[in-house]
Automatic annotation (TrEMBL):
Stored PANTHER family: PLASTIDIC GLUCOSE TRANSPORTER 4
Similarity comment text for this entry: Belongs to the major facilitator superfamily. Sugar transporter (TC 2.A.1.1) family.
Keywords, sorted A to Z: Membrane, Transmembrane, Transmembrane helix
Major location category of this protein: membrane
Organism lineage string: Bacteria, Pseudomonadati, Pseudomonadota, Gammaproteobacteria, Enterobacterales
Top-level taxon in the UniProt lineage: Bacteria
Protein name: MFS transporter
Membrane topology: Multi-pass membrane protein
């Protein structure tokens, strides 16, 4: 085999499949954690004496934790490596999920779910950076998209497990329900054992011999550093470069589209039974409707995952925002319609938003280079959770004070904002290798500013080197 063949062009092998399973497990836990609280709240609220304010605050607590965890996880993953941070999230999932079983107040539950949210925030940058830095080019988009499929699969599992445990667990059913996340966290820790460090990260730290050892282990003895395409312009990027030197525009795009895609979804997810009840679907209609809609979210993500390479990132994102916004507008307009119509519109939203959901991890991992990739994912995830947390906290108050129609119109407005931003700023990266996708040379104006910055820094760097 020629030494000039890029590792991005090798066949999808057993290692890639195992790594994908290891990484998507974190998003499964994420979907499980953030969804299960919505089902448990109805039972635990009377026992803990929670009013609407505290219900919304506890539902949003994990999202606030993700805000903090994203910043921490992104920075530490770029600084300390992918492999070390790969095990932090699972350990935290187990510890703080088990502790939920003994909570006695809303304040305690808020604190524990905040810590679980930090674990989720750490998962985003480390799991996605691992995947994108090992995967072949053709599988990069679909595998990163599969992360969101597993998020909704975890959410669906949460509804199913919660309904079962609440029925058989008696007055402590909600405690068993919240503590059940520990089981998944423990399994995640076990399956991640044996994962090597990312050779791209090792290269960015000057650890060339270790990087080559990993490449030979994963791809075979005929591969070496010569098979690893990497940015060779001589400049070492730092986390501050997310906000200037051409990457600020990309950071703004990712943060805004991610926020607009998750805010309505999280808000609806946390209070799915209450939203459906406000739309006149109660009892079994609400319970089974929540499960059905969740499964349709999975269907939407699977369909988007299959089209991320054929349709392209940009078209998929724009169409996703367009059709999902229309579904939300119709839900607001026809909120008094027949039950089957309401479920159909909710299902249409669930399927159509799949495109925006799966691209949340594709875009930031493709358009930022190795040195700041995890930081970009963590930063974007954190900023997006501001809107998600606010939406989750405010939705019970919105339903109570504004009504279901206005609530759906607000969700539609947020989605339409995502559409406009995507139309103006979304790039196309489907046919680019990872180095080219992350290079500013695809944006002539940004690249010119970037090269000017390099030129201005070189004399000072040369002086520092001589000193």
């Amino acid at each position: 085999m020629s030494t000039t063949i890029s590792i991005e062009d090798v066949p999808f092998n057993r290692f890639h499949k195992i790594l994908t399973v290891r990484s998507v497990g974190g998003l499964f836990v994420d979907g499980y954690v953030l969804s299960i609280i919505g089902v448990a709240l109805a039972t635990l609220s009377p026992q803990l004496g929670l009013d609407a304010f505290w219900q919304g605050l506890i539902a949003a607590s994990a999202l606030v934790g993700i805000f903090v965890g994203g910043f921490i996880g992104g920075a530490l993953t770029d600084k300390l490596g992918r492999r070390l941070l790969y095990f932090v999230g699972p350990v935290m999932f187990v510890a703080f999920s088990v502790a939920q079983f003994w909570v006695q107040s809303g304040e305690q539950l808020f604190a524990l779910r905040f810590m679980i949210g930090i674990a989720v925030g750490i998962e985003y940058p480390v799991a996605t950076a691992f995947l994108v830095e090992f995967l072949p080019k053709k599988q990069r988009g679909p595998c990163l998209a599969s992360l969101n499929v597993m998020w909704f699969a975890g959410a669906a599992a949460a509804f199913i497990v919660a309904e079962s445990l609440l029925h058989v667990g008696g007055e402590n059913g909600w405690r068993w329900t919240l503590a059940s996340t520990a089981v998944i966290g423990a399994l995640l820790f076990i399956i991640r054992l044996g994962t090597p460090e990312s050779p791209r990260w090792l290269m960015s730290k000057g650890r060339h011999s270790e990087a080559e050892a990993v490449i030979r282990r994963v791809y075979g003895p005929r591969f070496s550093l010569a098979n690893l395409p990497e940015n060779r312009d001589g400049r070492k990027l730092k986390i501050r470069d997310l906000l200037h030197a051409g990457y600020g525009k990309r950071m703004a795009f990712v943060s805004i589209f991610w926020t607009c895609s998750v805010t309505p979804v999280f808000a609806v997810y946390a209070f799915a039974p209450r939203v459906l009840d406000a739309l006149h679907l109660s009892g079994e209609w609400a319970s089974y409707g929540s499960i059905a809609i969740t499964l349709l979210f999975v269907v939407g993500c699977v369909l988007a995952m299959r089209r991320v390479n054929t349709l392209g990132r940009r078209k998929l994102l724009i169409r996703s925002f367009l059709w999902s916004a229309l579904a939300l507008l119709l839900l607001g307009w026809m909120n008094n319609g027949p039950s089957l119509l309401i479920l159909a519109l909710f299902g249409a939203y669930a399927v159509c938003i799949g495109g925006a959901q799966v691209l949340q991890f594709v875009y930031p991992n493709e358009i930022f280079p190795t040195e700041i990739r995890a930081g970009a994912v963590g930063f974007s995830a954190s900023l997006s959770r501001i809107g998600a947390a606010a939406g989750t906290w405010l939705i019970p108050l919105s339903l109570q004070n504004l009504g279901i129609a206005s609530t759906m119109y607000i969700a539609a407005g947020i989605t339409l904002t995502g559409l406009v931003v995507s139309w103006l700023m979304a790039p196309e990266t489907k046919d680019l290798n990872l180095d080219d996708a992350a290079s500013l040379s695809t944006d002539p104006q940004a690249y010119a500013r970037y090269r000017d910055t390099i030129q201005s820094e070189r004399p000072r760097s040369a002086i520092n080197d001589r000193i």
